[in-house]
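Recall that a protein's primary structure is simply its ordered list of amino acids. Everything else, from secondary elements to tertiary packing, is in principle encoded there. The following example makes that idea concrete.
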Amino acid sequence: MKKIIVIDGGPRKTFNTASMLQKFAEGAGSVSSEIEVKTVRLYGLDYKGCMSCMACKIRGKASNICKFKDALTPVLEEIAEADGLVLGSPNYFGEVTAQMRAFLERLAFPWLSYNDYSLTAPKRMPVVLVETQNGSENANNCNGYGSMEHCITQALGAPEKLFAYNTYQVKNYDNYELRGFSEPAKRQYREEHWEKDLQAAFDAGRRMAEQIVK
């Protein structure tokens, strides 16, 4: 049985990021019953970012899997043996959520060798990065996964990237102080693009699954 791990770095269980990742999982699952797709919600776990314990760098016992024990430990161990990885996050203040960033520290720091500065994961695999944001495609003010994308590329392989722009922040704009946004304009954009965004996520899931079962 092959396995794809989907990491949901968004706080809301049923909103934009979660919906994109659900469609990805459906796409991957449509290819073969021999592929398990497991989704992990970071906001449901009690964990921290890198603790600088340096346990992964101990001479003679170095590891490319984080050695700090908490709720994230089994997730990192599963990723080390997985066949595909999907990371999804909304962009807050132009970057992925704090939970996603903390997760990425724990994932990537053990890959880094301070002997030669190489980045080596336990296993290379296809990766998809999903970003949702309420800003427009032309805003150019989001750093997204930032330097962590370089780490992922070096250790796992170049990721496929999916973006959903100008997303709804709330279901009813009348209930919030959000006058900087035009709800009718956002509704029109959503009607024209959201189903296409979901289809792109489904198709990406199918592509990853097809690559894995080849």
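The chain has five helices and six strands. The two ends are 13 Å apart (CA to CA).
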